[in-house]
Amino acid sequence: MELFKSFSLAILVGFISGGLFILERKLSFLIVIYEKSTEAHERSMTEAEKLTAAYNQHVTRSNQQNHECPPGWKKHMKRCYFFSRQTGSWAEAGSYCRNFNAKLAEPKDEAEFVFIRNTIKSRIRVNNEYYLGGTDICYEGEWIWASTMEPITNAHWSPGEPNNYFLKENCMTVLLNGLWNDISCETSLPFVCEIA
After folding, report:
1. If you write DSSP's letter for every residue of 130-155 in order, what string do you get?
2. Residues 190/83, Cβ–Cβ less than 8 Å
3. CB 70 within 8 A of CB 59
4. In angstroms, how far is CA 176 from the centroid of its own chain?
5. If 0-12 CB within 10 Å is exposed, 13-18 middle and 19+ buried, where does residue 172 land?
6. Which positions ≥6 away from 123 have C-beta within 8 Å?
């Protein structure tokens, strides 16, 4: 009888071990399938994002040829401006603008400066400031327009600015009063895009 119990126990352990091995293989297979489906989903999302960006650029180019602005953008002279409600870092804001074949706004002349200032003053207050396309991230104190690397010559800084507070303010914003401020590029703020 003892021999029969030992033999039955050995068969049972073998059966359980074999079953665990099969379960382990099935689990490994399911993990591989899950990973592959996740990768495919990520690829398809990336492709969808690329298609959306391409469509947006096509619409933007068509509108530019007809001197029209995309829906939700404001026209000023031959340029279109978008005043965001969403927020992001300076880099994220620039990336958002590029999705529309645009850039962070660079008010290089007095007319652009006045238009942006007046539009911001008339908007519902989303935040106290909006990102523009100016930076001194390359060389401290040498402010340039990011899209062209041209020095900023028409400065409209708020009194005492730029001050590089805590040695980490390298990105330009426009305050609600229309004057400029320097701020940390990681601060989450709304922004102004420009299509030339």
Report:
1. EEEEEE-SSSTT--EETTT-PBP-S-
2. yes
3. yes
4. 23
5. buried
6. 83
- Please tell me the distance from the alpha carbon of residue 108 to that of residue 156, in angstroms, as a whole number: 10
Residue 147, SS3 per DSSP: coil
What residues form DSSP beta bridges with 142?
none
- In the numeric block, which tokens belong to residue 191? 């922004």
Determine the Cα angle at 97 with ends 92 and 98, to 5°. 95
Q: Are 135 and 171 in contact (CB under 8 A)?
A: yes
Question: In this predicted model, what pLDDT tens digit does every residue of 130-165 receive, in sequence order?
Answer: 999 999 999 999 999 999 999 999 889 999 999 988
Note if the bond before 162 is cis, omega within 30 degrees.
Answer: yes
**CB neighbour list of residue 61: distance below 8 Å, 6 or more residues apart:** 101
Cα 58 vs. chain centroid, distance in angstroms?
20
Please report, for residues 116, 127, 128, 192, the alpha-carbon distance to residue 123 in angstroms, rounded to integers and kept in the order given: 11, 10, 11, 12
pTM score above 0.70:
no
Find out whether 10 and 2 touch, Cβ atoms under 8 Å: no
Number of other residues whose CB lies within 10 A of the CB of residue 136:
18
Q: Which residue has the higher pLDDT, 146 or 21?
A: 146
